[in-house]
Amino acid sequence: MLGIFQQSSLRIEIAASEADLRQSLTDSGKLQQWMSPLRLERGLPEQLQPGLTFTSWAGPIAIQQTVDQVQPNSLRLLLSQGVDGFHEWYWGDGWVQSRLEGVSLLPLNLAQTASLLQLRRFLASK
Questions:
Q1: How far apart are the first and last CA of the chain?
Q2: How far is CA 109 from CA 11, 44, 67, 76, 104, in A?
Q3: What's the pTM?
Q4: Is the torsion defined by CA of 48, 52, 54, 56 positive or negative?
């Protein structure tokens, strides 16, 4: 994989319950709503489950994601193709944390920051 090794951990406060955060991060329909402009492939099951592999696109760049773990307060995705690494999510009442590590030509920290802000905006509009 060509690219730069990058790692970033961000945590923000979000006016949302633990249950709303879990649903927004593990329900494929909700993910598609707030992750725009990242596009998810069609036909995903309603809930993300360990072992599920799907592709998302950041413009023309495909990112394959495999669900490694889904816990009551966390989600871990293994990434390949456009990003080789992993993305971990942790949450609780009023906060969410994202840890992203991988090799890519994409600016991962910028994308991570944008996705957290989009999640916050999505949950604020509910």
A1: 39
A2: 12, 26, 21, 17, 11
A3: 0.94
A4: positive
